[in-house]
């Protein structure tokens, strides 16, 4: 032992040699508390003892403390690397060794030891690494690569030249080109390279994130792949120029045109006629017709039938002047006219399951879905109208016609006006100018839903005080209601809230924000939580934001009773 070491330090070293590592750690801790001790040596010894006890986090702290205290002492880097290897973090250990070699001067006497440890660890890691593409059978290697996205495949190619050559030898990996999530704009030479690599056999192309000056050339290269089945264009480009490039594409099953491509309604008809295999079509900027046609000529140019179409998603996001008239899908709900004129009753949309029509700003004055058909002389009792086998119907900015609710198929899963209504358990209609008390009554009596959630916030034509909740008391439509929101109705007062208290025994959450209720409503619902009666609601949450007549005492009272009062 060195005579310069303190007694506690020497005792710690002796205990370490004898295998009593716990006692050694305590002795080294005592030595550190002394002012004249060899701090670096003590930390180094304690780090070794902690490693023996497998207390790696504490050991790592001591090693890093050595580095922080004296950057030109190799012991901190060696100990830190040792702990990281024991923690099975060899890559982190290599980083520490590299950092140490940068910190130690060239003539340092122990620099060679650090270099040796670094090289030994590197060699050990190399022995455990194998190129999967040289070991796996070709079929398995292809199965692995098939799990990666287009962007990931592009990253894998940058690993090494061997991987790049291997991936280039598999043409099927280049059948799908997707620039979603590209970190930078994709120049047209890259598009040309990908198209050439696929040998013009692209089946899937999602074109976005292009610089404007590359759009035309990029689309020209993509248009050389006539076998495309999935085509998405999210670029700023004129529709006429785009249509000219992709005219004659007969294999397209999925077509998406982004909001920067304005598609006239009559051109939409042409798209449907030319791409007869279409299953899904989504147009995010559908404008008015180039030449408005009077009824019934608006159906001119419409395909005779659309047997493959499963999904239609049409949106208009422009504030035209005069306003763009929402597109009416011909023969959607009046097949009897066709039967009368053509002698047979075709099914125009036999497989249509999803229909989304979104007009913004809203066209509230027009019935743009159902009853928008111009054939006003049609007798609705002649042949019962019906809709395609829809599973999902979404209407935004459009007023449903009188027959809309009656015509919906019994198997519909999602129906949305302004908010989602999935599986007929949730009805959320907020800020809808067309929604009235009569609409709600008609909806409940027609659909017979079992609602759990009902939200009717800020609907200007809906008067909650005119809706007779007692007409539906005990009915399946509202009997199991747990979440109710009636916000922003100034005619709601404590007396009205008492009616809600009487009718909804299962209610758990109630939103009466921006109403005229007072603290009496809070007290009533709070007291009910401790009631033994099963006929009153045990409310968990009461939302009363912007209710000016509620005092802080009432809020505190409700919270003391366990009611979550949100203000």
By DSSP (H or I, 4+ residues per run), the number of helices equals: 21
Helix content: 25-40%
Per CATH, which architecture of one domain? Alpha-Beta Horseshoe
Write the CATH fold name of one domain. Answer: Leucine-rich repeat, LRR (right-handed beta-alpha superhelix)
Overall strand count = 17
Question: What's the shape?
Answer: flat
pLDDT under 50 segments (min length 5)? 293-298, 334-340, 363-367, 371-385, 418-422
Computed structural class: alpha/beta
CATH homologous superfamily grouping of one domain: Ribonuclease Inhibitor
Strand order of the largest sheet: 1-2-3-4-6-8-9-10-11
For the report, how would you describe the main beta sheet? 9 strands, parallel
Task: Tell me the fraction of residues in β-strands, as a range.
Answer: 5-15%
GO molecular function: Hsp90 protein binding
Protein name: F-box domain-containing protein
Keywords: Repeat, TPR repeat
Pfam families: F-box-like
Descriptive account of the structure:
One of its GO terms (molecular function) is Hsp90 protein binding. This is F-box domain-containing protein. TPR repeats lie at residues 5-38. Keywords: Repeat, TPR repeat. It is a single chain. The protein is α/β, with parallel strands linked by helices. Among the domains are: 7-127, Tetratricopeptide repeat domain (Serine Threonine Protein Phosphatase 5, Tetratricopeptide repeat), CATH 1.25.40.10; 131-174; 417-567, Leucine-rich repeat, LRR (right-handed beta-alpha superhelix) (Alpha-Beta Horseshoe). It contains 21 helices and 17 strands. The protein has helices at 7-17, 21-32, 39-52, 56-69, 74-86, 90-103, 111-127, 132-135, 138-145, 150-156, 161-168, 188-197, 215-222, 239-246, 265-274, 335-342, 404-407, 437-447, 494-503, 519-528, 552-560, and strands spanning 176-178, 204-207, 230-233, 254-257, 263-264, 280-283, 286-287, 311-316, 354-369, 392-400, 414-416, 426-428, 453-455, 483-485, 509-511, 541-543, 564-566. The strands form 3 sheets. A 9-stranded parallel beta sheet has the order 1-2-3-4-6-8-9-10-11, with no helix packed on it. β16, α21 (552-560) and β17 form a beta-alpha-beta unit. α4 runs antiparallel to α5 (74-86). The model is unreliable at 293-298, 334-340, 363-367, 371-385 and 418-422 (pLDDT under 50).
